[in-house]
Amino acid sequence: MRVAAIGDLHVQETDEAPYRELFTEIAQHADVLLLCGDLTNFGKEKEAEILADDIKSCSIPVLGVLGNHDFECGCPEKVCEILSASGMTILDEQAHEIDGVGFAGVKGFMGGYGRGELAPFGEPIAKAFVDEVMKEARKLENALRTLRTERSVAVLHYSPVPDTLEGEPAEIFQYLGAQRLAEPIDRFEHVKAVVHGHAHHGTYEGRTPLGKPVYNVAQFVLKPLFGRPYALLEV
Ligand SMILES: [Fe+2]
Ligand SMILES: [Fe+2]
After folding, report:
1. How many angstroms is it from 69 CA to the middle of ligand 1?
2. How much distance in Å is there from the Cα of 10 to the middle of ligand 2?
3. How far is CA 61 from the centre of its chain?
4. What is the CATH number of the domain that holds 98?
5. Closest residue by Cα to residue 79 from 111, 110, 107
6. Count of domains observed in the chain
7. How many whole angstroms separate alpha carbon 41 and alpha carbon 114?
8. pTM of full prediction above 0.85
9. Ligand nearest to the CA of 159
């Protein structure tokens, strides 16, 4: 299966059919399109409606997750509803299967890596912060566990590894993802690739601790690398 992936679309309310042509091009090269969060710039209904119109014109299945920007206006449920109505599958609690390939995804959250990982200790708000990423990792694990496919792709907005953040300032790595998100990925043999966005200045390829390939598909990373804002993977 040929899988196209793009993150960080950041659709704005002044945009006019911003992804229509690109989605048409992608449909000629791929069987499935994955959208890795920050679909809208501020999580406004109008922005979601503009993207929804472009998704309607896409002839291959579109699946994906929300990003932090899609939460900014406080109505991520509405954004989901508008995008779902356009035919997009929002991966969150539930995994999805297409032609024998599984797809499971969550937005993820921040939390850091290695020595930079925040521990759930002390004040309730510090524990709640860590709990948020643990909740996202649990959701991903539960979704992956339901899959009976031999191959699957994990879809995230935040990064599960620090490798794909190279290029970003080291001081902000802990806000760009969390190693807790890599644990469920490494637990399941069927996960063959991971895609994420969020790190606009990061690096395309990385690996989980057990060696699974991770791709940062933020469009700003891909454009200078491939001359096109999306990645193409064989799964
Ligand atoms: Fe973004
Ligand atoms: Fe983001």
Report:
1. 7
2. 9
3. 16
4. 3.60.21.10
5. 107
6. 1
7. 31
8. yes
9. 2
How far is 217 from 207, CA to CA, in rounded Å?
14
Question: Which ligand lies nearest to the CA atom of residue 70 in the structure?
Answer: 2
Q: How far apart are CA 37 and CA 18, in angstroms?
A: 16
Q: Which residues span the domain enclosing 92? A: 2-234
How many angstroms is it from 60 CA to the middle of ligand 1?
Answer: 24
Written as tens digits, the pLDDT of the chain (235 aa) is 999 999 999 999 999 999 999 999 999 999 999 999 999 999 999 999 999 999 999 999 999 999 999 999 999 999 999 999 999 999 998 999 999 999 999 999 999 999 999 999 999 999 999 999 999 999 999 999 999 999 999 999 999 999 999 999 999 999 999 999 999 999 999 999 999 999 999 999 999 999 999 999 999 999 999 999 999 999 9
The residues whose Cβ lies within 5 A of ligand 1, an ion, are 8, 38
